[in-house]
Amino acid sequence: MTHFTKILLITGLTLLSHLATGTIAAADDMEQWPIGVIARFDDHGTGLPFDKAMEIGVSVIQLKVPVVENRTEENAQFILETLKKNGVTLTCVVSGFAGESYATIPIVRETVGLVPEKTRRERFEDFKSVSDFAKRLEAPSVQFHLGFVPEDTESQDYRDVVQITRDACDHVFENGQWLNLETGQETGPALLQFIRDVNRLNLHVNFDPANMILYGCGEPNEALQIVGPFVRSTHCKDARWSKNPGQEWGEEVLFGTGDVNAGLFLKTLREVGYDGPLIIERENKESPAKQYEEIRKTIEYLKQLRARILDKQQPGV
Ligand code: MG
Known about the structure:
Strand 6, helix 7 and strand 7 (about 205) form a beta-alpha-beta unit. About 45% of the residues lie in helices and about 15% in strands. The chain is of the alpha/beta class. It has an eight-stranded parallel barrel with strand order 1-3-4-5-6-7-8-11, surrounded by five helices. Strands 9-10 form a two-stranded antiparallel sheet. It has helices at about 5-25, 50-55, 75-85, 105-110, 120-135, 155-175, 190-200, 210-215, 220-225, 260-270, 290-310, and strands at about 35-40, 50, 60-65, 90-95, 140-145, 180, 205, 230-235, 240, 250-255, 280. The protein binds magnesium ion. Magnesium ion binds near residues 211 and 237.
């Protein structure tokens, strides 16, 4: 396939994604920014079980990928049919890798994503299977934490991470998808530089403002302005800064109650021309009931905030 043909196809994908966004919007009560959640069909991961996501009343989801033994053709058919039956738009399949740990920031550095060299090739094979499974679900994109990109852009390590990301983009491209990098482990300028170095048109960003704070990577709304043109998806999640940003975790809190400044966040999304979904990410491994209740509250909060930000007659936040 020639480079030019690839550009044409990517343009087509972009148009399709906008069309898909329009379809999502029709299912919500607003034309812009449909509110969704991360959902799952098996017992793995921290999203809402799919039936709970339906109960809570969303029509757009990101799907936490089933574990490898559940990525069967039969399961793919079941999930696809269930999504269609419920009128749900799947915007993205979220990947993750066996052996990852988010216990501390240094442990994330050692264990998360495609960056750790020891597990890179093996995980890349797993990533390809996620993308292939996502294709069967007709998902337009896949997403993951790449890991801590090496800071020295002249180093061989950096070049290797750029290359594996190109390989990932090229694989998902063959499946008609784009790749979302979830933000957190890099500053805005470093992420922008990395995206430019990878130089693939189907590389985009899932912007998670809380992660910027949790990892101590800079003020999220400033970073959003920097990488805004690449943002195709977002997590509505909030956090408070730690006393030692970058060394110790910040604290995750309910969206709208932390240092993200939720109003400014939505306002900035609007300024950068964002037109994708608002995906609520809220984990609570100990209490599924509390997780459900917090997500339900956040949906109500987001609806009001969204209406205020999108309504030009109202004063800004
Ligand atoms: Mg996130």
